Amino acid sequence: MQSDADVYPMPLFVRLAVSDVGTSTAWYEALGFEVVYSMPVMAHVRYRRYADVMLAADETQPGAGAPRATPRGSGISIYLNVADESVDDVAERAHEAAAEIAVEPHETPWNTREVTLTDPDGYELVFTEVVDADRSFESVMDSRVD
Predict the structure, then answer these.
(1) Residue 136, number of CB atoms within 10 A of its CB
(2) How confident is the model at residue 69, as a pLDDT?
(3) How far apart are CA 95 and CA 91, in angstroms?
(4) Distance between CA 34 and CA 31 in Å, rounded?
(5) d(CA 132, CA 109)
(6) Which end of the chain has fewer surrounding CB within 10 Å, N or C?
(7) Cα–Cα distance measured from residue 119 to residue 22, given in angstroms and rounded to the nearest whole number
(8) pLDDT, tens digit, 9 for 90 and up, residues 104-137
(9) What DSSP character marks residue 58?
(10) Which architecture, in CATH terms, is 13-60+72-143?
């Protein structure tokens, strides 16, 4: 499957080994990612420009088929800054798609609002937005002093 999305050299992207490309692609689509292209062993999904994720069938990874001591996504968190929507919009889509919300929307001491979702392979996606864009970095750091 191909889309009309811009194709450009990606300055950075994440490649995730997944157990089922179709299931993972559907999960990401339900959360608002666009499918740039897909094939049986790989899918390129995009949250927004320069926020690209490659989903690759686990058998394309070295050592495929070896027993796993921990889930694929164990310890991996991917942060995505929201644009043209809010963290609460993402959380609402996640609820509608019955996606696992690991941490409901909340404000952090570092001046962001975040929601953490867990994909079918255990990767955490943290959608984040600035709470007060006029607040200085120094003010945020000063408020964190214990």
Answers:
(1) 10
(2) 60
(3) 6
(4) 9
(5) 12
(6) C
(7) 13
(8) 999 998 899 999 999 999 999 999 999 988 988 8
(9) G
(10) Roll (3.10)
d(CA 91, CA 104): 7
Task: In whole angstroms, give the CA distance from residue 46 to residue 54.
Answer: 9
The structure tokens 């644009």 sit at 83
Q: Which amino acid is at 89?
A: D
What ranges do the domains of the chain cover? 13-60+72-143
What tokens were used for 126?
Answer: 């943290």
Question: Which region, left, alpha or beta, applies to residue 65 given φ > 0 means left and ψ of -120 to 50 means alpha?
Answer: left
Question: 19: which residues sit within 8 A by CB, 6+ positions away?
Answer: 58, 72, 120, 121
Helix (H, G, I), strand (E, B) or coil at 109: coil
Q: Mean pLDDT, the chain, as a whole number?
A: 87
Mean pLDDT, residues 41-68 taken together: 80
pLDDT at residue 130, as a whole number = 93
Rounded CA gap, 37 and 67, in Å? 30
CB 78 within 8 A of CB 86: no
The DSSP code sequence of 23-40 is: HHHHHHHHTTPEEEEEET
The pLDDT tens digits for 79-113 are 999 989 999 999 999 999 999 999 999 999 889 99
